[in-house]
Amino acid sequence: MKTERRSAIKKIVASTTALVGLGPMAMARSEKSKENPLGLPPKHDYFRELGVTRVINAGATMTFLSGSLMMPETLAAINATAHDFADMYELQDKVGAKIAEMLHCEAAMVTSGAAAALVLGTAGIITGTDADKRKQLPNLAGDRPEVIMQKSHRYVFDQAITTTGAKIIEVEGPDEMEKAINKNTIMALFFNGAISWYGIKDSIDHEEFVAVCKRHKIPSFIDAAADVPPVENLFKYQKMGFDLVTFSGGKMIRGPQSAGLLFGRKDLIEAAKLNNSPHEAPIGRPMKVNKEEMFGMYAALKSYLERDHKKEWQDWLSRAESIRSEIATIPSVKGETHVPDGPANVVPSLHVTWDQKRVKTTPKEVYDALKGGTPSIVCGGVGQKDGKELLSVGVVLLRPEQVSIVAKRLKEVLRQAVR
């Protein structure tokens, strides 16, 4: 018996020694596991393994191009929080409270992008804290809820509104908006980027839109997904009186691509959270945000607010000038820095034009050549100004070392077309 007990004790000691990592080799293994607790292979090239083409984004924060690149602070937050569990109710509440503090508003939450914020914000307004209504969405009993929008503001993403079962009522001008409000009206949605998208002036400006909503005691919601920079826009619309505001997290804030911000009135945010995961039944369950994205979104917003925006803007202008000076040596090729009037996607890009009799190619052909080349460079697209075709080259999403790559490749493609 003593021999068996002694043998058992030896086994326990041996296994304990292995677990606590005694000895130089075991300690080294222990330290290594701390650095890489998931045991992932270092610098594994998943692009190559899956045959996925790496793209240089000389365009904009388009979802089909995976949005933007996350800031180091965002990645650090994701990596630092990936190895422990958290109560998701607590995390959403506490991250939301910190974000609300940073944005000087009543309440906030992290969503799976701005489109999900539209669904959840609308759902929260429809259901409030009524659990039965949450279970019924999108097939709520009785008349369909109605959401008012300006006719010129209809856009592809307003399907997020009808996903909740609501019906969109189109209006033009403040008078029509007043008349359209009835017992079924639950809110009014303002698409902030409509002017940028369509070049059509709003029939109801921000202030009058909010004023009409307040007179009739219906919530006002503004979609400002792509509307930073400038950083001031994060505070501007709530100051105007909008009850709910949404911004994309994965655009120029440079958080996770599948994250967004919804903020505003506390009662509406709390109702929106009830319609979202981790609650198991509601309409927002498929719009789950994982804990890493919540921490990452928090870190990204904190980083964005602390950034030197003037310095960043000057850097973007310098990039545009660097590319312009490289291609200006080609006969008739000109580059002009362009900044949209806004309010959406207000960042500088380079508009490139040339005499197609001297450089015998079109902007579309250059776009295709850059995209199909090695490396693959996707530009902002082709357009026209003063009746002349142009190629738009974005600079804000380039990594520093990619500026010269884009400049030289663009110069090479254009030079090949010189006759």
Low-confidence stretches: 1-33
Strand order of the largest sheet: 2-8-7-6-5-3-4
CATH architecture of the largest domain: 3-Layer(aba) Sandwich
So what's the overall shape?
A: globular
Radius of gyration computed on alpha carbons: 26 Å
| CATH C-level name of the largest domain | Alpha Beta
Describe the structure.
- This is Aminotransferase class V-fold PLP-dependent enzyme.
- Belongs to the SelA family.
- It holds the Pfam family SelA.
- Keywords: Aminotransferase, Pyridoxal phosphate, Transferase.
- This protein is α/β, with parallel strands linked by helices.
- The protein folds into two domains: 85-306, Aspartate Aminotransferase, domain 2; 309-416, Aspartate Aminotransferase, domain 1 (Alpha-Beta Complex).
- It is 45% helix and 16% strand.
- The protein has helices at residues 2-20, 24-35, 46-50, 72-81, 88-103, 114-127, 131-136, 159-162, 173-180, 194-198, 206-216, 233-240, 266-274, 291-306, 309-327, 363-372, 402-416; strands spanning 55-58, 107-111, 146-150, 167-171, 185-191, 220-223, 244-248, 260-264, 334-338, 349-353, 376-379, 381-385, 388-394.
- The chain has a seven-stranded mixed β-sheet, sandwiched between helices.
Descriptive tags:
single chain; 419 residues; Aspartate Aminotransferase, domain 2; Aspartate Aminotransferase, domain 1; 17 helices; globular; PyrdxlP-dep_Trfase
